[in-house]
Design goal:
With 77 residues, this protein is mainly beta. The protein contains 1 helix and 5 strands, in the order E-E-E-E-E-H. The longest helix is centred in the C-terminal third of the chain and has 5 residues.
Length: 77
């Protein structure tokens, strides 16, 4: 799903990066029309937190975007 994505743009809100806004693939910017689902997952073995988003793109494609949260993002600062 996301193996062809070069970059993900996120909305920037009061807490920094938030939900996906657009993806870049092969030099083209494709807007995220709707976030279909989102979840935050804690990897108990590493202690790292990841966010997973299922997104509907403007071209009708549904993709998953996974993001590893930094220590700052996890602390809520």
């Amino acid at each position: 799903m996301e193996e062809n994505i070069d970059q993900v743009e996120y909305y920037a809100g009061g807490r920094g990066q938030e939900t996906p806004l657009a993806v870049h693939r092969q030099g083209k910017r494709i807007l995220v029309i709707k976030v279909l689902s989102e979840k935050r997952v804690l990897d108990v073995s590493s202690g790292q937190t990841r966010e997973w988003y299922k997104c509907l793109l403007e071209n009708g494609e549904v993709i998953e975007v996974k993001r590893l949260l930094s220590a700052r993002d996890q602390s809520g600062i």
